[in-house]
Amino acid sequence: MGPQSIEVETPRLAAAKIGSDVGLLLAKLHATGSLLNNKALADYGLRERSFSVLTLACSGLEPTQRELADFLSLDPSQVVSLVDDLEHRGLVKRAQGKQDRRAKIIVSTAEGRRIHNKARAGLEECERTQLATLTEDENAQLRALLKKALWG
Amino acid sequence: MGPQSIEVETPRLAAAKIGSDVGLLLAKLHATGSLLNNKALADYGLRERSFSVLTLACSGLEPTQRELADFLSLDPSQVVSLVDDLEHRGLVKRAQGKQDRRAKIIVSTAEGRRIHNKARAGLEECERTQLATLTEDENAQLRALLKKALWG
DNA sequence: TACGGATCATTGAAAAAGTCAACGATTGTT
DNA sequence: AACAATCGTTGACTTTTTCAATGATCCGTA
Prior knowledge:
Two copies of one chain form a homodimer. By secondary structure, chain A is mainly alpha-helical. The first copy, chain A, has a domain at 46-128: Winged helix-like DNA-binding domain superfamily/Winged helix DNA-binding domain (Arc Repressor Mutant, subunit A), CATH 1.10.10. In chain A, 59% of the residues lie in helices and 7% in strands. Chain A contains six helices and two strands, in the order H-H-H-H-E-E-H-H. The first copy, chain A, has helices at 22-41, 48-58, 65-72, 76-88, 110-130, 136-151, and strands at residues 92-96, 104-108. A two-stranded antiparallel ribbon of chain A has the order 1-2. In chain A, helix 2 packs across helix 4. In chain A, 36% of the residues are buried. The interface between A and B is large, with 59 and 58 residues. Chain A binds a DNA duplex through residues 64-66, 74-80, 94, 97, 99-104.
C-alpha cells in the first residue's frame, strides 16, 4: 500500500568503461523505463507502443501509418498490428488520406481520447518515479538533450 | 567513399506532445544508435550485446554471468548464449568463481582484448557521429544525466 | 493520355529475441 | 544433516522482428 521503494543500487560493474557508453546507458534506461511504463499502462490495456500510436492519433496531426512507422522506428507491418488492435477496441479509426488515397490517416475516437487522458496521467506519474533522482531542471535538460541529439 | 551524410530531418510528428515523452525519446535514440553500432561492430563479428560482454570481460572486474545479466538487463539464459559465442571464438573464457563455485567468471583472452580495442575505436567513431549535433559539453552532460538517472 | 517505376497498407512466412520453468551443482542457514 | 536459495544451463514456448510479395494508388515522362 505504501509507495514502493525503488532500489537504486549502483552496481559494481558500473565502474567499467562501458558504464559510460551512451549506447548501453540508453539501452538500460530504456529497458527499466519500459518495464515501468508497460506496468502502468496495463491498467488501460495499452503498452508503450500502442500508447504512442494512440497519442499521435490524438494529437490532431493526422499521421499516416507510414509516418507512424518512421517516427516510432517500427516496421510498417508492426504499425498495422498496433492500429488493428486499437481500432478493434474503438480507440482510433482509419481515415482515407486526403492527398494520397493509398495512405491511411489514424485519428482518435472520443473513447480513445478518454482512455488516452487517463493513461497519460498514469504514465507521467511513472516517468516522475523513474527520473526521481534528477532535479526538475535536470529532467528538462535530459529531455532537451535527447531531442537535440535526435533532431538537432 | 566520402563520409556518409546522415539525414537529420525533423519529422512532422515531433511536434506532438509525445515528442517530449522521455520513454519515446530513449526508445528512438536507442533504436537509431543500435542500428549504427551494430553496423560498425559487424566488421568484427560483434553486436552491441556481445561487445558489452566482451568489454566487461576485458575490464578486470571479473564479472559473473549473473552480474552480466543484471547489469545488461538480460535473462541469464541470454548471457549463456552470448558467452558461448564469444568463448567458441576464443575471445573470452569461463573461469571458476573464487568464492562461489557455482558462479562462473568471464575473463577476456589476449585475442579478445585485441578485437575489443579495434572494435572500441570503431564504436567511438560511431557514437561521435550519432551525437554530432551535440557540443562536447552537451555530450558529457547527456552521459552524466543518464548515469544519474540510473544510479543516482 | 498511357506507361513505368515508386510508394502505401497489408499479408504471411521465416528468423531472431525474449520469457519461463525445470534441473544438477553448490551455497548458506537452521 | 536438512532445507531453502542461488548459479549456470537447457529446452520449450511465446513474442517480436524482419522481409518479400501483393493490389491499389501516385507521380513523372514520353
